[in-house]
Amino acid sequence: MKKIKKLFALLLCLVMAATLLPSSVLADEDEPELIDYGKYSKIEWGVYSDGTLVVVGDSISGTIKEPWSKYKDSITSIYLDVALGIPANFFHDFPNLEFVYISESVNNINLPNFTGCPNIYEYYVEEENPYYASDNFGVLLTKDMKTVVKAPTRITVYLVSETVKTIKPGAFAGCSNLMYLIFAGDFVIFSDDSFTGVTATGYYYAKYSRWESIYDFPLTTADITWYGILDEGLLGENLGWMLLTEGILHISGSGAIPDYAAEGDGASPFAGNEYIGYISLQGEITHIGKNAFNDCPNLSTLFFNNPDAPAMTDSFKNVRAVGLYPSTWKDTPKDHGGDILWVKYDAETGELLGTGIPGDVNVDGEISNADLILVARYVVNLIEEDSFQHEFVAAFGDMDGDEAIGNTDIITVARRIVGLD
Prior knowledge:
By secondary structure, the chain is an alpha/beta fold. It has helices at residues 2-18, 23-26, 369-379, 388-396, 407-417, and strands spanning 34-40, 43-48, 52-57, 77-82, 99-102, 122-125, 132-134, 140-142, 147-150, 157-160, 166-167, 180-183, 189-190, 199-205, 223-234, 239-244, 248-257, 278-288, 301-305, 311-312, 320-326, 339-345.
């Protein structure tokens, strides 16, 4: 609200400037100084000392000009009050623009606009505007909330509401910080260039079968990895979980995963689940309760992305898996109850760090015939490329430093096993 009041004050300053009265006389001492003012087509504009560009008037027509172009690098916010439409490409290449305020009078923003603006955090639309609206994520939508028009380029996560049916071309173009898209409703129509330049993970509810069509027409201008949500729920007050297609269980938030009974009414909703193959735990999870993930026969990978190791007590009984943990952990849990091979990764780069023992490609803390066999199988292409075994050999099997895994690496591992190197 403070920002809104400020912009109304700026608009008032512009009106007073149009009457040729000095803004330094008419404005309060706290108001920013009007440093330039002009008229173009049927609009008036002003640039202020705090980096705000105010544009008001009836319409913009004729050859597109940017009379404020020399101020582009310093403009951080734009106030728009142009009643009869904004031409395509009228606003572009503001490197430090963060905030766009759209008044109730604006009725048509032709796309593309606001391209080349990598630092926008929010589009805000006055509630009285009959044509446009904005949501809590700072995204610009049509008034009926059915069409996403433009997302701020600094957006990182977006929950697409059930009302949205269409995403316009270019709506998320340039949103290089976007990591997660979550679609709350049925299939949404978008084009190949709606997400140009985006690398993100997209979640949809698998109960809406029309979402399956996204796999038939992969995007060529963006890299979005799609997962269907099969089920979801809460674990305590601040932890949520989603069971995704591909056998992925995603748990995020803060706090403790509770203890469960070994069986019966108080048993864990995940224990004995044959579908779960990968568990991702993210946030600040402090404890993984007893019997939480017991007897999951196909669980092969645990990925921890929380800064400190959670406490565990018989949480993974009868589970054999690889546990990937960040370099920020001081130690790995000892009482997890399962057969877990712990593998450290760099918390900043994601690079596997291994045990530091040359030739220990299976990361079990020693060099043995198992490592030799693994390297040999890798060389003759007998290991699946999407397996952790393949990733481990690729990361730790280059014994001679030639950036390739070959016969000389097999020989070097064999020599180390028998103590010749």
